[in-house]
Write a structure and sequence with these properties.
Blueprint lengths: L1 E2 L3 E2 L16 E8 L5 E8 L9 E3 L2 E3 L4 E5 L4 E6 L3 E4 L2 E4 L8 E8 L5 E11 L5 E3 L2 E3 L9 E3 L4 E6 L3 E6 L3 E3 L3 E4 L8 E8 L5 E11 L7 E2 L2 E3 L4 E4 L6 E6 L3 E5 L2 E4 L8 E8 L5 E11 L6 E2 L13 E5 L20 E4 L2
Length: 347
């Protein structure tokens, strides 16, 4: 047998696997019998092809984008893909691309005349595993959590990761191309939403946002007792309205609660420095201190020291308080105050 492209064969049966258009043509077979008689027979073979059949589309798809493939040059199309995916028609459209959609897609293209060509392509979903994070919180959907409260004078520190390039924007026209933000000396004009767009090596992007609030610092001043007599009540007041108050004092004293500190039955062990730390709703703190002295009790003493003293009429009566004090108040019989010629003295 002979045929196109110098084909020859001495077999009674000729088989062509995976026939292509280049084997089309006239095949001639010469058959010789046992007596040496021979005859020829010609057959024309035509291999039909679907010329120009192909797959086009985006074989590298960003996470959450639309995967689109198109087959052409046929009359019917049957698709198959990763994880049991199937579809009919020339256009394959899969929105919200994720890692489960990555892999090989195959389409059988038919021309209506019984010929079928099978084509395949591999799709990569870039961003399956690509993440955007701020403050160490990773998420493929760019969800951001973490500490968002900063006190005046503090530092705003935000870190993005997961890509090759970073574009930040923030309050008051703030911008940066670094992977991290470090803003010292925070003030209220720095409060607001910070946004970062992260790009990976294939050009896919992810965006994350975080709200940062710069809180004012609370006021911490103390008023109230500074000197108290033994047995009295120590009362110290801080400004009201804070979220929390933490008190410390002499000899390991501690207390929490409201803006007022009250200690009854004062004694010498309660004397010393009292300190309050005030915390507001933003977590910012301020402290103030006040010293308190506790005076020992005073015992009054008077001369003459006898409980009953007799004097002659019209004589000078002199009583002397021998206890040192800063003020003296005398009373006499029936509530009378001492007057001359009765004399009341103190050292």
């Amino acid at each position: 047998m002979s045929g196109p492209n110098d084909f020859t064969s001495n077999s009674a049966t000729v088989t062509f696997s995976n026939a292509q258009a280049d084997i089309s043509g006239v095949y001639t077979v010469t058959v010789t019998d046992a007596n040496g008689c021979s005859s020829e027979y010609e057959v024309t073979v035509t291999i039909s092809t679907i010329e120009g059949a192909m797959i086009t589309g985006n074989t590298i798809v960003c996470l959450d984008d639309v995967l689109t493939l198109t087959a052409s040059r046929g009359t019917s199309y049957e698709w198959s893909g990763p994880n049991g995916f199937t579809s009919s028609g020339p256009n394959l459209v899969r929105p919200d691309a994720d890692g489960t959609m990555a892999g090989e897609y195959t389409v059988s293209v038919s021309d209506g005349g019984g010929c079928v060509v099978v084509l395949s392509t591999t799709v990569t979903v870039s961003g399956a595993g690509f993440s955007v994070s701020i403050s160490g919180i990773n998420s493929t959907t760019a969800i951001v959590t973490g500490t968002t409260d900063v006190c005046i004078g503090g530092t705003i520190n935000l870190i993005a990761s997961g890509g090759n390039s970073y574009v930040w924007s923030g309050p008051g026209g703030y911008s940066s191309n670094a992977h991290s933000i470090l803003r010292t000396g925070a003030n209220t004009t720095m409060s607001g939403v910070y946004s970062v767009t992260v790009s990976n090596s294939t050009g896919c992007t992810g965006t994350a946002n975080i709200l940062v609030t710069v809180h004012t610092n609370p006021s911490a001043t103390l008023s109230g007792t500074s000197t108290i007599c033994s047995g009295g009540t120590i009362t110290i007041n801080a400004p009201a309205g804070a979220a929390a108050y933490s008190w410390t004092g002499p000899n390991g004293f501690t207390a929490t609660g409201g803006p007022s500190l009250i200690r009854t039955n004062a004694n010498s062990t309660m004397a010393g420095q009292y300190k309050v730390t005030v915390t507001n709703t933003g977590g910012c703190t301020a402290s103030a201190a006040r010293s308190v002295s506790v005076s020992a009790p005073t015992t009054a003493a008077v001369t003459p020291t006898t409980s009953t003293t007799s004097f002659c009429s019209n004589a000078n009566v002199i009583f002397t308080a021998t206890t040192v004090g800063t003020a003296y108040s005398w009373t006499g019989p029936e509530g009378l105050q001492p007057q001359l010629p009765l004399s009341a003295h103190h050292p």
